[in-house]
Design a protein that fits this description.
With 364 residues, the protein is α/β, with parallel strands linked by helices. Helix content is 23%, strand content 25%.
Length: 364
């Protein structure tokens, strides 16, 4: 058995309820007990312990801990001034990508009262374009510490979703949305499967309406993650996931990554300014929709702004648009709002839905 703090970490999934007492009896180091899924993450230090655990007829699946990381994205430019692009609205920048998903129309809805959990590297709470909309969060990787962003990715995603109207900087898709930082990745953009599951469960416990995830987890869907996303969506939470940035230039093949591959997640592809599939954007039958993801200008730590490219940026637009639909239809079911989201898309292919851009460009 490989070494991991004196043993190896596994996630155990049970049929009905987890067996906490048994793990304690065996002297295993408990890491996490699922709140909504019958699972336990624990460090097992010997094969003898593992054999005893596996005797339980309620145990349905065992997964060793796996590492997750940010989808590789491209940092195009960092702006230290408050004028990253030309188009302005009351002194603020309204980037092309935001106008694109709003169809260029004036706002009626702003996402007010809708809670979006950013499962990522954290958020820069002090950024002037975000501070009034950040309402809390959790640091899963360093419990007790604030979920501040030491990487930049989470802050950028947050700005696309909900940069505020405040006479400076930029404006997000849903500028009155409530943002929550669910930090599951460190400053290098690295985390673990169990921490991602824990982040999703925190989102369920804290009544998020939308969970935005831009993480690279390969092509094999961990059962524990599938269960967590399933529970979230059953409770009416939208799980929006970046499709991935390892697409073939030709657009061939199935390159969508976990968690976007999970059936209950909304998998988002990236588009260029000309509404073409970005050359890096993952492709496959699980791609649901697409949104701008090339040279997207948004908030960046240290009172800065940056232009980034990736399906992470595309997913953030979808989370923002969903917040607008949620505010517009407060009593509508999860299924109804999903239908409205899909029905609102601008079809980009003569053949309709395809493996490159799904149903097309998301618009409100």
């Amino acid at each position: 058995m490989e070494s991991h703090q004196g043993g190896q970490r596994f996630t155990f999934l049970y049929q009905n309820e987890s067996r906490v007492e048994r793990f304690l009896e065996l002297g295993c180091q408990m890491e996490y007990v699922g709140c909504y899924t019958p699972m336990i993450t624990a460090t097992v230090s010997s094969w003898k312990q593992m054999r005893e655990i596996e005797k339980d007829s309620e145990l349905v699946h065992v997964e060793s801990e796996s590492s997750l990381q940010l989808l590789p994205y491209e940092l195009k430019k960092v702006y230290t001034k408050k004028r990253p692009v030309k188009t302005r609205q009351k002194g603020e920048v309204l980037p092309w990508n935001i106008r694109r998903v709003l169809r260029g129309k004036s706002r009626t809805f702003t996402g007010k009262g809708i809670k979006v959990g950013i499962i990522d590297t954290g958020i820069d709470f002090s950024h002037p374009d975000l501070s009034q909309n950040v309402h809390g969060g959790v640091n899963i990787i360093e419990p007790g510490k604030p979920p501040h962003d030491l990487n930049g990715h989470g802050t950028h995603v947050s700005g696309v979703i909900g940069a505020a109207v405040n006479q400076l900087g930029i404006i997000g898709v849903a500028p009155d949305v409530s943002l929550y930082a669910i930090k599951v990745l460190n400053k290098k953009g690295v985390g673990s499967l169990s921490d991602l599951v824990r982040g999703i469960e925190w989102g369920i416990s804290n009544n998020m309406d939308i969970l935005n995830i831009s993480i690279s987890g390969g092509k094999v869907s961990p059962v524990a993650l599938e269960k967590a996303i399933q529970v979230a969506t059953r409770r009416g939470i939208f799980v929006v996931a970046a499709a991935g940035n390892a697409g073939q230039l030709s657009g061939k093949g199935d390159t969508v990554e976990v968690p976007a591959r999970v059936s209950n997640a909304i998998a988002v592809a990236a588009l260029s300014k000309s509404n073409k599939r970005a050359s890096f954007s993952a492709t496959g039958s699980t791609v649901d929709v697409a949104a701008p993801g090339v040279k997207v200008v948004s908030t960046y730590p240290g009172m800065k702004y940056a232009a980034l490219s990736g399906t992470s940026m595309a997913a953030a637009h979808v989370s923002g648009v969903l917040a607008l639909f949620k505010q517009k239809h407060p009593k509508a079911s999860h299924a109804t709002i999903l239908k409205k989201l899909f029905a609102s898309t601008k079809v980009l292919s003569s053949s309709g839905r395809n493996s490159l851009t799904g149903r097309g460009l998301v618009q409100f």
